[in-house]
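Sequence decides. Our protein:
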Amino acid sequence: MVSKRALIEDLFGRYVVVSSSYFPQYIDLFISCLPPTSKVTSKEIIEEHTLFNFYTSFLSKEKTNLIYEMMGKGSNGAKLNIEQLIGFGGSKVRKPSYLKYCPLCYKEDMDTLGESYWRIHHQIIGAYYCSKHHVLLKESTVLSTGSGTEFICTDEQVCNEKLLEDNYSDTIKLLNLRYIHNAELLLNGNFPRKKLTYIIDFYIDRLRERGLASTNGNLYMKDIQELFLNFYPKQYLKMMQSDIDPESPSNWLRLFVRNNKKNRSPLRHLLFLQFLGVKIDNLFQNKKVLGKKVVSVQYNPSFDIQKRREQWLQLIKENPGANRSQLKEKGKGLHTWIYRYDWDWYDKVTPKAALGKEKAGTIDWEKRDEECLRLVSEAVEIILQREGKPIRVTPSSIRNTLGFGSWFHNEKLVRTQRYLKEVKEDIDDFRVRKIKWAINEMLSKGHIVSPYKIQLYAGFDGSNKKVRKLILEILGTNNHI
């Protein structure tokens, strides 16, 4: 058939525009044009021969039903198209531009059937391997989306049997095959849809079980981020369009477990579930979630407010020039009470950071640089000497300790910026410091000390071999106490 338009009219009964192989539309029209004896249904095509289930598994039931209806009946002038409803527009995770295929699947088809076909599970975003043959998928020359309609077969013009050379490590291969397994469960499972708030609460519950969230559901984000980066190699995260800048307060992982209305890519949901070690069906079959607890604290009149005010004023007097973060560190319990129950008075009497208040153009950057350098040096000592689980010395943790704004990273603070780079704690040095802290804590509390228990107490993943090696080296030197 030479005319594409004529073929479209034969298939759909009228001329329609079908621009995406991921989310074809007007499927009801297509079904109505099949022979009367055909038993193929719209439901079968949508759920078994498109990426519908994969991309809607983490959406609400309402959105899922709307997308289903649009695929069956067409957009019909809707303000939003399917890809916008799914969240492709604002997502940093981009879908593949070309259809993919497995060269061994293609060869088998040609040998046994004489022709091949496009497999839907090969088109899963983030899938690098064929789940059947464990070889790398290949990109064809066929676009997955476009403004025109093309009917292109999987034949020798766009496919071949030549295998790609696999230079990925065994770790990356195994991680990706596990990801593909979970993605195919979504594709074939048609699980009950859950609201995003439920999913976030489910994640918080699992993090709480691993000691990565408080009883109230507040996340220990630094620990989560560190474990996540230990679990996934940097190269793999980059391959999966999900690399993380640990110094950025707005990296995707920090924003992922928050209750906002933005859609998350199913790829990142699967990465997070894989990191948590949670089976896909547990998320969807689970009946009850807790999430964050709302704690209501009433003012206790038995506390003497005047006495506490006097103690706070005395603390300010004893520490001239100290900013709020430094005062908080020096008077932890007192600060918490005053801050929570006597905020207006606290805000009135407590000095704010003196730096950063001059108008633009009147700042003596050289003088500020000298002052910042002194404060940064003090902040490093505060971080290193603080009680409790160690915090890594980084520009971000120093800034948080001082309570400074974004101006702190200004390039005009030449000596300060140079010092920040020099003083930034190497990740292995930080791990050693954290391990030694855990050992001393466990010994002081009479806990049984073993490499595995030390690893967990320090907040590391129990399977991290690099950390385990450091622990064994430290235990071998006998100088950790």
About this structure: The beta strands are 98-101, 138-143. The mean pLDDT is 86. The longest helix spans residues 365-385.
